[in-house]
Amino acid sequence: MTEVIDSILKENIYKTHVELKKKKEPIVICSCASGLGAAHKIKEILFNSLPEDSNLKIITYDYPALIRKQVYDQLMNDYEVICVIGTLDPNIESMKYIGIQELIINEGQNAIEIYFGKYMKKEQMEIFEKNILRNFTLSNVMNNLTILNPDKLLEHVAKAIDHLQNILHKRFKNRTCFGLYVHICCLVERLVTRQAISNFTDQDFKEKHQEFIDQVNISMKEVKTYYNVEIPDEEVEYIYNYIIND
Fold first, then answer.
1. Which parts of the chain sit beneath pLDDT 70?
2. DSSP state of 152
3. How many separate helices (H) and strands (E) can be counted in the chain?
4. For the packed helices 109-116 and 122-135, what is the interaxial angle rounded to 10 degrees?
5. What is the pTM of this model?
6. How many CB atoms lie within 10 A of CB 205?
7. 38 near 8, Cβ under 8 Å?
8. How far apart are CA 112 and CA 114, in angstroms?
């Protein structure tokens, strides 16, 4: 028996496998239905709001990719996702979300404290919240998000949103309006620079919602004329998603 045991030990038949639990890096994801360009600019505003001694990592992610389950699973496997900050809620279970429209109208402070509290000291949190209030004003966000004249663009977009509310016989909540302001302004810039979204998230959207498509085009007539653009049906789908989440 002793000889058998010695033989096994010599041949190294038994191997020890130790699996250490990987410590995940905490990250914030910036993702916008308005496109990666808008997500990068929001990331920059957010980065400039962090305390100087903070080492939180901020990444950007394409919205259509983020809402795919395999991408979500990979992110959750690789990182400790603090939250997503963007212009449209990806509605992913267990992934927290803060809309920039909530930051603009000062309704996101509680979420900031809850989501970021464990990653910052009290003094850091105070600086972060103060910087968020200063940096996420509508005018500052718009100045950062678009190369077009933001005042003129907002004027046209605000009229279009008012017209759309009248057509739909519906008044949007403040956060929905601000979300639409940001999204449609970015949409117009994409159209002007020929970077429109060209894929539906719901392939049957056009068939199911032709009336809504027509209503958006009617309300956006002034915007389309002033900037000499046409709004693709794929872009209208994202406007629809904002409103159904109102």
1. 1-21, 196-200
2. H
3. 14, 4
4. 140
5. 0.77
6. 18
7. no
8. 6
